[in-house]
Design goal:
Elements (H helix, E strand, L loop, with lengths): L7 H52 L5 H14 L9 E11 L4 E4 L7 E12 L10 E11 L6 E8 L14 H15 L5 E10 L8 E5 L7 H10 L11 H13 L16 E8 L32 H14 L3 E7 L5 H7 L10 E4 L5 H14 L5 E2 L2
Parallel strand pairs: 5-6, 5-8, 8-9, 9-10
Antiparallel strand pairs: 1-2, 1-3, 3-4, 4-11, 6-7
Amino acid sequence: MKPEKTSPRLRRGTIAVLSAAFMVVVFAMLAFTTDLGFVTVSRTRQAAAVDAAALAGVDYMSDGKAAADAAITEMLLLNGYDTTDSNITATVQYGYWDAEMKSFAVTPFDDADTVRVHLVSQNIQAFFGPVLNEHGYTTSTEAIAVKGGSKPRDVVMVIDCSGSMDANMSNGLTRMENAKDAAQALVDELRDEDRVGLAVFSWEDPARNRYEKTGHPERDLSFNHVPTYNRVEDLEDQFYTGGTNIGGGLRAGLDVFLNDPVPRPLPAPTDPEVVNVMVLLTDGQVNLPEPYPTSEDEFGVLPPPPYAKKPQYKDDVAVTQWANTIKARGIKLHIVTLGSSAHSSLMVNAASPDEGGTTYYHHVANGASDATELLNVYKTIGRGDGGPKLVK
């Protein structure tokens, strides 16, 4: 018995039905992927706007709630989100951020240190969504920004003035010129309640006998912004002598702290009222020794002079010993190295260990953006945690 033949017209009809069904599936997938991509882009743009608004709000909290609210509204508008539009809903709350629990609690404005901005955008255009009976989308984003730390800081900058600082960087200026610009930018970033001092290396001190070349503390600046800024302007490579006595620079920086003409009240060890910061910059290998305290004395009392030939001081040990005694006194030690000749392996261990998202060792490699990177490192250190920051 022969099988029945299917009519060509019937086969064509079946293929047409399957093709139509397949096209619906393809079109639905196209609708989903196109609209999903557009919504993702919209959400990313919205998140950036909310982040900027939260930071702006925190920045203006010191001027009162009305000023903070206005700053948030303006920043949202600048980023394309008009809060008078019925499709845009912005909710602003002020409160307290618990860093340990990573939680936000609403408080009265006068007690707040944090702002939370929640933004909802409705009726985002759906290109192919109607195929799936979806005529618009809604996105929701949130940002939380907190004020920076309110503790004042005492900052001592220690700058390498050795001969190699006359090498050029990518912007055509010497390392010394860029170091001066960066140091002055750091001073500009400080708040009024912060103070700043200066030390340099090397320096000839005839009283040091064999170990003449050492760091020099600029003690007459009294931790004031303007005299320190102006003194930085005077610095030049080989301003004092050649050589790279990094241990001497560290000791001189500590000397600025220890000879503060108007010392602040001593802070409690577990909750310091003042944050002490030292920022050392060098572009070279340590090549001169510095008398250093014994390892038993973590607080760094300099052995009495004269500094005879024995004990034989070692230049790399001097860096480690003086860095340790600086850190033992609770001083945060930033170390910035420039170029490929810097003694990076020694310096990375001398700097304070990273903590709480803060990095204390910074290497600026030779390259097209080295001058900009150096400037940004110093600006970041100058700001510290004094500026607003996003926590969510």
